[in-house]
Sequence to fold (116 residues):
Amino acid sequence: QVQLVESGGGLVQAGDSLRLSCAASGRTFSSNTMAWFRQAPGKERELVARIFSGGTSYYADSVKGRFTISRDNAKNTVYLQMNGLKPEDTAVYYCAARGWNSYDYWGQGTQVTVSS
Fold:
């Protein structure tokens, strides 16, 4: 059974940092694009960052310069380092693995709350 399990969320103050982890099991995702999405209350889910199998990354404008996505293929794990957190970063963060033409696998989400 394929699983993506996020961890590392929590309640922090504005300006603090958090590192989210996404551990995959059931199959290897070293050849897949991996991504982090987030969904704030009352808003649609949005792409935060993605990393291709070769290591190239992409970021939403709202997090560029503050967040860093990385992957450790040996551990089948993807990370999201979040620095300079802002209240508007408050959301449930989801890890996802891309298949042929869609994100086929999703984690259960981890809550990140940033107080002002």
